[in-house]
Design goal:
By secondary structure, this protein is α/β, with parallel strands linked by helices. 33% of the residues lie in helices and 17% in strands. It is elongated. The chain binds adenine. Adenine binds next to strand 5.
Length: 226
């Protein structure tokens, strides 16, 4: 999978993308992530990318032209399955969307700032708008990092154990069951005996019941979702 990220703060991705699963996926050649600072596409001599909003009001708006020029250049080189704008008013991101995005070849992610981007970019260049939750971040970068992390771990071969992504919380709209490791007795708290029984069928049944119980208690709404 190839991911192009348009941002005026590419450094913000350095931390999350240099470690763990994303690092491994890059090393295995399963993903390529490129950053494009659309400030470099500004025709303004001060490389400005924002301006005052028409109609007045507080905050600045990101100008259409530098973003459009950057998108045009990228689109000339390859076609994209989705051009995604990260925004608090997009569709709410969930595991199902992550699953769908994980089988795409080319994604473009656009990170906005300030009051947002000129509406004409949203109307004519963006194919999908995604929010990672009902709260406002100071920019789209952290949301893009969340999306990339969630999607990449689903690509076959990225996780060591092929099945482990499928047994994550939210696959099947269920939360994960509790997990334990050694020692059996930790400060007097012990591990449920069933997990030591060696009976795989009974263990699977117990885990499923625990998942159901946990979901009913913590996130009952998930059980009503399709
Ligand atoms: N940009 C600012 N807030 C955001 C959010 N909640 N999700 C996605 N992008 C955002």
């Amino acid at each position: 999978m190839e991911i192009d990220i348009l941002t005026i703060f590419p450094e913000m991705f350095e931390g999350p993308f240099l470690h763990s699963i994303i690092k491994r996926a890059k090393e295995k050649g399963l993903i390529t992530i490129r950053f494009h600072n659309f400030r470099e596409y500004s025709t303004n001599k001060h490389k400005r990318v924002d301006d005052y909003p028409y109609g007045g009001g507080a905050g600045m708006v990101m100008m259409a032209e530098p973003i459009a020029r950057c998108i045009d250049k990228l689109k000339a080189a390859r076609s994209y399955d989705e051009v995604i704008y990260l925004s608090p008013d997009g569709e709410l991101f969930n595991q199902q969307t992550a699953n769908r995005l994980s089988i795409t070849r080319n994604l473009m992610l656009l990170c906005g700032h300030y009051k947002g981007i000129d509406e004409r970019i949203r109307e004519h260049f963006i194919t999908r708008e995604i929010s990672i939750g009902d709260y406002v971040l100071s920019g789209g970068e952290i949301a893009a990092a969340v999306l990339v992390d969630t999607v990449i771990r689903l690509i076959p071969g990225v996780l060591g154990d092929e099945t482990s992504a499928l047994s994550d919380s939210f696959q099947d709209n269920l939360l994960s069951p509790p997990v334990y490791t050694r020692p059996f007795d930790f400060r007097g708290y012990t591990v449920p005996e069933i997990l030591l029984s060696g009976n795989d069928k009974e263990i699977a049944k117990w885990r499923h019941e625990q998942s159901l119980q946990r979901t009913r208690k913590r996130r009952p709404g998930l059980l009503d979702e399709e």
